[in-house]
Amino acid sequence: MLAILVLDDNAYGVSIQKELKQRLNRDCSRGALHTALTRLQEKGLISSEMGGASAVRGGRRKRYYTVTNKGKVTLKAAKDSRDVMWKAIPNFSLKTV
């Protein structure tokens, strides 16, 4: 969902894959991404709509994704929970022993 927010109006399958690779150095297969997007959509956390057909894509249309209000609330709650846990660590240092 964060990648969708980063990409804003340009969040479709391939662009999401590229964003994950670029920012997180993580490869994600089309199938795995499609499964995750489908599940997020079924939970009402994201929505999608089809874009216009393009001659460059052989007349095929892209499916664009957006994060719903429910998705944004869920992301904020997850971030807040993580922040609480990080702040609770005494004398936290990134130095390894």
Describe the structure.
This protein has a single domain, classed as Arc Repressor Mutant, subunit A (Orthogonal Bundle). It has four helices and two strands; from the N terminus they run H-H-H-E-E-H. It has helices at 2-7, 13-24, 30-42, 69-88, and strands at 46-53, 61-67.
Give a brief rundown of this model:
By secondary structure, the chain is an alpha+beta fold. The protein has four helices and two strands, in the order αααββα. The protein has one domain (2-88): Orthogonal Bundle (Arc Repressor Mutant, subunit A).
Write the layout of secondary structure elements.
Blueprint: H1 2-7, H2 13-24, H3 30-42, E1 46-53, E2 61-67, H4 69-88
Antiparallel strand pairs: 1-2
Identify the notable features of this structure and list them briefly.
97 residues; alpha+beta; two-stranded antiparallel ribbon; 4 helices; 2 strands
Low-confidence stretches: none
Please give the largest β-sheet.
Answer: 2 strands, antiparallel
Structural class computed from helices and strand pairing: alpha+beta
- The overall number of domains is 1
Radius of gyration: 17 Å
Distance between the termini: 34 Å
Q: How is the CATH topology named? A: Arc Repressor Mutant, subunit A
Q: Based on DSSP secondary structure assignment, what is the total number of beta strands?
A: 2
State the strand order across the main sheet: 1-2
So, the CATH homologous superfamily? Winged helix-like DNA-binding domain superfamily/Winged helix DNA-binding domain
Report the sheet-strand fraction: 15-25%
Specify the helix fraction band.
40-55%
CATH architecture heading: Orthogonal Bundle
